[in-house]
Amino acid sequence: MKRKALAVSMSAILAASMLFGCGSNSGSGDTKSSSDTTGSSSASDASSTGSDASGSGIQYDGDDVTITYWHTHGDSEEEVLVDTIIPEFEKQYPNIHVDAVRMPYDGLMQQIITSLSSGTGPDLMRMDIIWVPQLAEMGALAAVDDLEGFADLKDDLYEGPLSTNYYNGKYYGLPLNTNCLAGVYSKTMMEELNIDSIPTTYDEVVALKDKLGADQYLIACDGANSWAMAPLFHSLGGVYTNEDYTKASGYINGDASVKALETIVEWYDEGIIGPCFTGGKPDAANGLYDGNYLFSYQGPWFFTNDDEENLAKVEAGLLPAGEAGSLTVNGGEDLVMFESSDKKEASWVFAMFLMNEFSQTAQAVGGGHLIPTVKAIAESDEVQAVPNMSTYVEQLEGAVARTPSPAWEKISDKLSVAFQSAVLHEDTAQSALDKIAPELDALLAGEAS
Fold first, then answer.
1. Phi, then psi, of 315 in degrees rounded to 5
2. Handedness of CA 152, 158, 159, 164 (dihedral sign)
3. DSSP conformation class of 59
4. What tens digit of pLDDT does each residue of 342-390 get?
5. Torsion angle, CA of 198/201/202/206, rounded to 10 degrees?
6. Ordered alpha helix ranges (H), 81-222
7. CA 418/CA 225 separation, integer angstroms
8. Which letter does DSSP use for residue 390 in this model?
9. Of 262, 276, 267, which Cα lies nearest the Cα of 220?
């Protein structure tokens, strides 16, 4: 979003936030809109008393402190955090100062572990959702179940993103923002195939095969791995584990999963899935722009670049449905507090501020167009007006969480190896999945494998 447009939006959000501040200060973590609140306290009153003028209702009467907040925001996202959200927070809570530190993603988990062992870790952190169970198992994170406002906020959150904070009977964080992969469709390809609407099922997609020209394919999948192909695998009926994530045998290598993988292999062999699946050219983005691919699985960040000429050649839409529906994979970041922090009270106040209407809307309409995790905010007129946001919010209804296990990264590696071996015909789908099933069982049980 251009800076001028962002400034206008931020002004509107701030105005709405201040209006919301006229609501009741119940301390309940209420995230309903201003039209659902009552009361007469002004925004200036809220600031002077240390309450959240955007609706969290949390007061802070503690000492003057500086909390360290690690995050992995991109450039435009960080701009919203530093220039808009933190100044408003520090205005409302003058005794709490935020030292926001942007961290490189590569090697970050090891850096977290090192910092905690040396006593130099942060108080609060925005981290990849896949790391929460691992750090919770290590005892590094503070449980938030009994903290002020959590119980009420919990009911207002999307279930999928919330579940990424759950481990061994407790919640260890808040889902700050979420994302998923939806469809990005080539207008050029649709015109050449003589279709005027986005296909709603994979059967409709496959039926277009005979219309393809030279160097044209229907599906662009960015890799045979557990993230990129998850929407396709799950939509076709594949699953990694049972519903409570305790067992893989009979599920990852069950009939439905084997059939899903066999179908994917068949579609790649037949040229329905294009060469970017195994690292070939064209890549997904350029293939969409140039009319080589009908659609690809992409996150909302696909639309945050400034190449308006190319973006005009594509449109967002829901993914086709397979036997299991139009499913996708759940991504995003969670907010966690570290058990070693001696500033948990102040850190929680800031965490809840990041979950309120002002902050969630600010990150949605600016920066990386981050999808709010509070349902009412994600579905608000202002957020829904962000280009393509409505598509991703609707696609989230079919989001499948990556297995919430401390061993997820090892599980993911084994899934990716199995998928790749089947796609490259180094193994059959059945054999590849049979081999990893007991290994995944061991990882889910907390055993090294």
1. -145, 150
2. negative
3. -
4. 999 999 999 999 999 999 999 999 877 899 999 999 999 999 999 999 9
5. -60
6. 86-92, 108-118, 132-137, 150-154, 159-163, 187-192, 202-206
7. 9
8. H
9. 276
pTM comes to 0.81
Q: Are 380 and 371 in contact (CB under 8 A)?
A: no
Q: What residue has token string 């193994």?
A: 427
Q: Does residue 101 sit in helix, strand or coil?
A: strand
Give the helix ranges, DSSP H, for 100-244: 108-118, 132-137, 150-154, 159-163, 187-192, 202-206, 230-235
What are residue 177's DSSP bridge partners? Answer: 333, 372
CA distances from 66 to 184, 351, 415 (A): 43, 14, 42
3-class DSSP assignment, residue 299: coil
Residue 206: how many other CB atoms lie within 10 Å: 18
* Beta-carbon count within 10 A of 258 CB: 21
Please give the DSSP secondary-structure letter assigned to residue 82: I
Q: What is the C-alpha separation between 80 and 171, in angstroms, rounded? A: 27
For residue 41 the two structure tokens come to: 């306290």
pLDDT digits (tens, 9 = 90+) for 225-241: 999 999 999 999 999 99
